[in-house]
Amino acid sequence: MKQVSAATAEVAMPARDRSRAFGAILIEQGRLNPADAEEIQRFAGANGMRFGDAAIRLKLLTQEDIDFALAQQYNYPILARGGANGVSDDVVAGYMPQSDSVEPLRVLRSQLAHRWFNDVDHKALAITSPGRGEGRSWLAANLATVFAQIGERTLLIDADMRHPSQHMLFNLSNSIGLSALLTGRAGKEAACRIHPQLRLFVLPAGILPPNPQELLGRPVFDLVLERFTDQFDVIIIDTPAAAETADAQIVARRAGGALMLARRSVTRQAQLVSATQSLQQTGVKLVGTVYNEF
Predict the structure, then answer these.
(1) Under 8 Å CB-to-CB from 246, ≥6 apart: which residues?
(2) What pLDDT, in 10s, does the model give residues 32-76?
(3) Please, what is the average pLDDT of the chain?
(4) Dihedral over alpha carbons 117, 202, 73, 100 (to 10 degrees)
(5) Dist. CA 193–CA 91, nearest whole Å
(6) Cα 237–242–246 angle (5° rounding)?
(7) H-type helices in 172-246, by residue range?
(8) With contact defined as beta carbons under 8 Å apart, do 139 and 276 qualify?
(9) Which residues contact 30 (CB under 8 A, 6 or more apart)?
(10) Phi, psi of 263 (to 5 degrees)
(11) The domain spanning residue 281 has which CATH number?
């Protein structure tokens, strides 16, 4: 998916108070020393600049430092990117929430909040698409992230027990997950919290079973979702490709609603129509369709 570098973004506040708080956060975290903070503040005042812009101009801070301070200042956690503890480059909403590519996700979040999640009986939503390579897992991961960023207690379930990817996107172990939960070998603790200040939990697919469709079709899946709906405000479920197996239809029926994804130059119209009709024939509410242009 296209990613746009974030520009320095700061909410309008009194410049002196704001820069002082901004610098204090970075000093406290060891990212800036007091002398450099004073130099930045003088330069910003003399040139009519914001503290962050001045710091970058002086090459005393990086964009990563600015994003970190903004997150701390507004209680808006930014996830680490890459490395041993960071998320994948694909979880752009987590590590670069100011990116232009995240804004459409916020618009989608708002639409879903009014069209689906405004009903207490609608807490789960399946993310589906006809085939693989259309961005389904990307959308599920980033959509769950933006819901958590507004304080919603959010669970992301990887129900693709054929080609799972959420454990890779969030750098989690896949040894225990949904498959273990459905066979009684694990409990709700299998869902991992991603960040202590972000109400985002991820339940990986777990060890790939030889009978994923049968596991998903068991009544125990309903019980698992019922248990989670009591604990979470929003449940986003990543599904397998709808055109390849009946897994997606089974999961979507359990969730009650689905969001269909199509990708430019990849999704075939006939497959999209067939997948949509299959969902509707099983009583699934098609909440909307998302067009992936990348």
Answers:
(1) 213
(2) 999 999 999 999 999 999 898 999 999 999 988 887 787 777 777
(3) 90
(4) -70
(5) 15
(6) 90
(7) 178-182, 212-217, 219-229
(8) no
(9) none
(10) -120, 135
(11) 3.40.50.300
- Tokens 């980033």 correspond to 142
**Shared domain check, 183 and 131:** yes
108 belongs to a structural domain: yes
Question: Do 38 and 119 fall into the same domain?
Answer: no
CB atoms closer than 10 angstroms to residue 9: 12
> Which pair of tokens denotes residue 208?
């790939």
Residue entry with tokens 């990543």: 238
User: How far is the C-alpha of 90 from the C-alpha of 259, rounded, in Å?
Assistant: 19
Amino acid at site 87: V
Q: For 88-103, what is each residue's pLDDT tens digit?
A: 999 999 998 888 899 9
pLDDT at 18: 53
Q: Which residue has the tokens 């987590």?
A: 94
Measured CA to CA in angstroms, residue 5 lies from 2, 68, 96, 98, 99 at distances of 10, 15, 8, 8, 6
Tokens encoding 183: 């066979």
Please indicate, yes or no, whether residues 155 and 281 belong to a single structural domain of this protein. Answer: yes
Single pTM value for the model: 0.82
CB 28 within 8 A of CB 69: no
CA distance 134 to 260: 11
